Structure formats: structure tokens, C-alpha cells
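Good morning C.,

I know you're traveling, so I'll keep this short. The sequence:
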Amino acid sequence: MVEQAEIRVVHQGGSKITFREPVISSDSRFLLCASGHNVKVFSTATEECVQELRGHTDLVTGVLLRPSNHLQVYSCSADGTVRLWDFTDGILIKTYVIGYPICSIYASASHDGVVFIVMPTQRDKRSDVFQLVAVHLPQCADQLVETTDVSAVLGDVSSNPVAVAFGRSGEYLASAKGLQLEIYFFKKQKSYRFFLKEDHKNGGRNTFTCVACHPKDDCVATGHEDGKIRLWRNFNHKKEYTYSTLHWHHSAVSSLCFTPEGTNLLSGGVESVLVQWRYGQENQRDFLPRLGAAITNIAVSPDGALFCTSHSDN
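The C-alpha cells, ready to paste straight into the viewer:
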């Protein structure tokens, strides 16, 4: 005889943890990864999962340290909400209801109380048209907050999180899509656009794949489908802009990241090799090879002590 018992379903193990760029806490003790509907918090010392931030009802599409409090993170989701967490204790502090699926989230120390999100263009219900908007987060005691103060910053941006980056503490942002690089200056409220030719000669492919901004200099690094990296300068003068080209990757550059002091640029792609370029002396490179699978994302801790690579094999 088998005793009849109610079937109990238990959440266990392993959803994808490399869907989005991971985040390393300010003290380098924790690694936070978007994982399905949740955010997993790992100890960098023991590698165990110490917290799971549960609350979203759809795919988590971004995790971001709150600039004004190093013990808190924002998460965004396709469920149309941004949530604020105390990640060390696993406590949900606030839920901001946006009402549209969110693809990615950004913030900068110079925009206090504001987060920037990429979401579908409201007027256009086609799912392939996206815009970057600024969301002013209301300061109130309520745990569930409807956000109505939303202003458009850029139209027609990529839904890929690595295609948008903030430069010089949030003075400007760079957005790459297709063959166009757009740089928006917040003070001037002005955009400059730079175009590359559709180059199929010699198998060259100029399409942008990712972008990163130097933390101190006016320099934007862009990755391309043909494995090239371009360093753009003088882009606040439309006619005087310059770029230099670096080339080591044989296929598309999937991720670029500057170290916090800006001394190095990290790049990765299908070669499973982490490449470290010396900023200002780009002919000097260091390689960390044989990492096991294609690199999809690169993250650096705020103190520059740890690098983290995400890979296509999870």
C-alpha cells in the first residue's frame, strides 16, 4: 500500500544566471545575478547562493547597484516594475510600477532619485521599437508606488543592455544601434549622431554590438560584428570627432568594460578569451585564455579588485 499524499512542488536549482550582466557589490563580497523571475546573491568568498530576491512575476531583465546606497540594488523586469532591495538581508523595500515591460536599467550618481530604463515605445505597439526614458522615483513611505513622472530621453534605441552606457558620471550617454552611434549630452539636451558605412568589402561588418564609456575621459569604446573595437573622441564637436581602431577578436565583440579608474579596457567574445587593453597604450594587451565558452558579459567590482565573466554555457 502507498500512502496518498498531496503533491508538493518545490523550486529547486538552476535557471540561467548569465542572461544579464552580473553586479559585484561595492565591498566585493557579493555577486548578484538575474535568474529567471528572481535575483540570486552569491558570496564571492564561498561561491554559495546566500540570498534569493523573490517578488517579480516575470523575467528579471536587469540588476543595478543604487548609486546613493551601496547596500541596496534595483531590479527591473518584463512585469513592468522596478524594485528596490536590501540585498544583504533579502528585503524588498519598494516596488515602482512603470506599466510597460522593461528591457534594461541604468543610473548615475549625478542623477539622484532617477533611473533610466529601456522600454517599448508607447505610441508604437510593435515590439521591435524601443526608447530610453528617465523615471523620477517618488520619495514616499508607500511600499507600492505608481510612477507617473516619466520623460523620454532617446528614441529608437537597442533593447540590448550592452548597447547603452553612461559617461563621465552621467554627463552624457552613448547609444549604439545598427550602424549608428548616438551621444546625448544632458546639460545641452543635445544629441550627436555618427554613422559607419555598411562595409561588406573583405568580409568587414561595421554593425555595433556593444558600447562602454571611459569613467574620466571623454572616450567611448564600441565593439563591432567583425571583431574590431573603436575608441571615439572629440564627439562633442560633430565635425571634429576621431576614432582609433583596435583589432584582436576574430568575431563579434560581445562585451566591453572599462575598469573603475579607466586604466584598462576589457573585451570578450566567442574566442573564450578575456582581453585587457592598456588605456592609452593599446598595443599592450594581456590575455586570459581558455575560459571554457564564449564570453557574453564582463563586470568589474567598484574597487577594481575583481573581474567577472559570464559565459554562453551558463
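Safe travels,
E.
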